[in-house]
Design brief:
Helices cover 47% and strands 14% of the residues. The protein starts with 11 loop residues before the first strand and ends in an 11-residue tail after the last helix. The protein is α+β, with helices and mostly antiparallel strands. A hairpin with a 2-residue loop joins strand 11 and strand 12.
């Protein structure tokens, strides 16, 4: 009887790799899945077993698995030739022979190749293509080593370590199992479905069957994005059924998608009397502790209902709903207890206790901090013609809620609870609102403080933070910003610009450093440079070009709120037909003046009587005429009109450079022409350095 020939390996087929684990960290699951899939895909490309289109790979990530499906993977890469350059053809024979011996070729087989450094010998080497069965286990292991830096663990009596214990490995190329061992687990074609709603194991017939079979036989939606979309669809449908909305829920949606494999959404309820508690407390309790989705009425008020995303999709969910309703009640009771207990002590009675709370070991206590913030907030409020007493009162009470039970349990509620407790204590509403608003913006895109008193306290808090930490050398470095100084700086910028506050950045920063009474280093210049970098990035995100931003900021940015209008003026100036020529001329003028200064030239205002050439006299007259008109626009802060006025100088400036030599021998004439150029540059560049617009 003839022996059966072994199956021939397919030239190209889909490759499936799946790692079965215990429950993975939910906050990192999507990132782990992408990193794992990309690591394997890049490994295949490196061995020339797959093409370079990363969009074709499918990423799978559930609480108990990481996987990737890559189509059209070769069983073996094509053989190829490489040309390896060696020493010069004039090198010693022994060197050439040694090169040939190391490359495994005869000296006679070496070729010559021309290079910028002359002719060299070259070895033509045949490289065998990589074999998938041989390299796949290494590709997977390398991908695992490159996963985000998470805390690893060991299990059993082996030496393997991973973020969670590994129990299974699938490596299939088409219908074939690719043998190999990763983290002490041998590869096969058997996976596991849902922990409670599937058979113990699922045998795969081919790599391409994976997703469909896992869903139909294992009740698992393996693709993270597909699972998130399905959860969102069910949430929206259930909320609509209750005539409610979900509020801001996208962050929780991502987390819940990492907790379930086969989601089912059900609605639960809690006792309406709990709504007497501030709804922010209830929302945070449900979202953070229980991963529930609170439901809201059309007016934004919390309803006594919430949505549960279960890992079980069942016909009769009463036991799931009832269990979750029983679980949430003690959590809400805790919130009610904290709220009632906290209100027994007034905020102002808690303030002296802040002396025992360390803000930073080099910057003193929280009490010392609020004393500085109070002083700053009062000064800013006066500059803004707001009620300084209200600002100072709000600053004095701004950190008192740090000592409350509710904020101790939920730090995210600091400021929010302070507002509720201030209102309960009978503080003016402006004070209560400022206590909450002074933390804003808490994150990118967050709402800003609205009222002037709110802005004064918010700016004071951020300025104190920035000055203090810069003063003790705690500036952000690289990606590290443990104190959130970039966020504080951007918040300060947004408040000043978007609320159009007429404040001097230099005066604000100086006042913030002065509040420390010389106890910290003078990092005023460093902080202002840091603010400039943040401001530049902010303006570019608004849509202004790098050249436009640099043109304005190079002339100073002390009044932050004025800068966007200056940029709009520059933008309008660039649209003028004369702008390109005037920008180039300004650049030329700047270079001439810089070179003259380097030679020690000094000059005053230009004198018309000393000028000789008709072109320079014409420029002098045109400049004086334009400057007189421009000054009126500048007084009215019409920056676009100011720049537009100087468009008439194109012709006289061009004529000047065509016919006038600046650096002549005659001392008085040279100085006068330099003075004329200096006057031109000063007049045109009071709101932006036009030379920066030149390409």
């Amino acid at each position: 009887m003839a022996k059966k020939k072994p199956d021939k390996a397919p030239a190209a087929a889909s490759l499936l790799v799946e790692l079965l684990t215990e429950e993975l960290p939910p906050r990192d699951l999507e990132r782990l899945g992408l990193s794992f899939a990309d690591g394997i895909f890049n490994g295949l490309v490196r061995y020339q077993l797959s093409d370079h289109d990363i969009r074709r790979r499918r990423v799978f990530a559930t609480p108990r698995r990481l996987g990737v499906l890559v189509p059209d993977v070769l069983a073996r890469a094509q053989d190829r030739q490489i040309m390896d350059s060696g020493p010069s053809i004039n090198a010693a024979p022994a060197a050439i022979a040694g090169f040939a011996r190391k490359r495994g070729v005869a000296v006679e087989a070496l070729e010559h190749q021309e290079t910028p450094n002359g002719k060299v010998v070259v070895a033509r080497i045949e490289v065998r293509g990589a074999v998938l069965e041989i390299v796949l286990a290494k590709i997977v292991s390398d991908a695992l080593e490159k996963l985000p830096n998470l805390k690893m663990m060991r299990w059993g009596d082996g030496e393997a370590s991973f973020v969670r214990p590994v129990h299974g490995l699938v490596m299939m190329h088409g219908k074939r199992i690719i043998p190999g061992t990763v983290l002490g687990v041998h590869a096969g074609n058997t996976t596991s479905g849902h922990r409670f709603m599937s058979t113990p194991s699922i045998r795969l017939g081919s790599a391409d069957d994976y997703e469909t079979k896992l869903r139909k036989s294992g009740n698992v939606i393996a693709d993270f994005a597909v699972r998130r979309t399905e959860i969102d669809r069910q949430l929206q449908a259930e909320a609509k059924r209750h005539r409610a909305s979900l509020g801001k829920y996208q962050d929780l949606l991502d987390e819940v998608a990492a907790l379930v494999e086969f989601p089912g959404v059900y609605a639960g309820e809690f006792d309406p009397p709990f709504l007497e508690i501030p709804q922010e407390c209830l929302i945070l309790t449900m979202r953070k502790n229980q991963k529930y989705f609170p439901l809201f009425a059309a007016d934004g008020k919390l309803l006594p209902k919430f949505l549960i995303v279960s890992n079980m999709r069942v016909q009769d969910p009463r036991h799931i709903i009832g269990g979750n309703e029983r679980v949430v009640r003690p959590r809400l009771e805790d919130a009610r207890f904290f709220f009632n207990q906290d209100r027994k002590i007034r905020l102002e009675a808690r303030v002296p206790q802040l002396a025992r709370v360390v803000y930073h070991n080099k910057l003193g206590s929280q009490l010392e901090r609020i004393e500085r913030i109070q002083l700053l907030a009062g000064g800013i409020a006066r500059d803004l013609r707001a009620d300084a007493m209200l600002a100072e009162r709000a600053a004095w009470l701004s950190k008192a809620d740090l000592l409350t039970g509710m904020v101790g349990e939920f730090p995210e509620l600091q400021g929010i609870m302070g507002r509720y407790y201030a209102l309960h204590d009978g503080e003016p509403r402006e004070v209560a609102d400022a206590i909450e608003a002074h933390y804003r913006p808490r994150f990118a895109g967050d709402a800003l403080p609205e009222k002037t008193v709110d802005c004064a306290v918010a700016l004071a808090e951020k300025l104190d933070t920035l000055a203090g930490l810069f003063g003790i050398g705690q500036q952000p470095t690289g990606e590290k910003d443990p104190f959130g100084l970039r966020r504080a700086a951007l918040g300060l910028i947004r408040i000043a610009v978007e609320r159009e506050l007429p404040l001097s950045l230099h005066e604000l920063v100086s006042a913030a450093f002065a509040g420390y009474g010389g106890k910290i280093g003078d990092a005023n210049a460093d902080l202002q440079l840091f603010m400039r970098e943040r401001f530049s990035g902010y303006l570019k995100e608004l849509g202004y070009s790098t050249l436009q931003v640099e043109a304005v900021l190079s002339r100073g940015f002390d009044r932050l709120s004025q800068v966007p209008r200056q940029l709009e003026a520059v933008k309008a100036f660039q649209a003028l037909p004369e702008s390109e020529s005037l920008a180039a001329a300004n650049k030329r003028v700047a270079n001439i003046l810089r070179q003259a200064a380097a030679k020690g030239e000094s000059f005053r205002k230009a004198d018309r009587e000393t000028l000789k050439e008709s072109a320079e006299i014409a420029l002098f007259d045109a400049l004086n005429d334009a400057s007189g008109k421009a000054d009126a626009f500048l007084r009215d802060e019409d920056y676009a009109g100011y720049l537009r006025t100087f468009a008439v100088l194109k012709a006289p400036v061009d004529a000047f450079f065509d016919s006038v030599m600046v650096m002549v021998e005659q001392d008085a004439l040279r100085k006068n022409r330099l003075a004329l150029l200096a006057d031109l540059r000063e007049a045109m560049n009071r709101i932006a350095d036009i030379s920066k617009l030149a390409a």
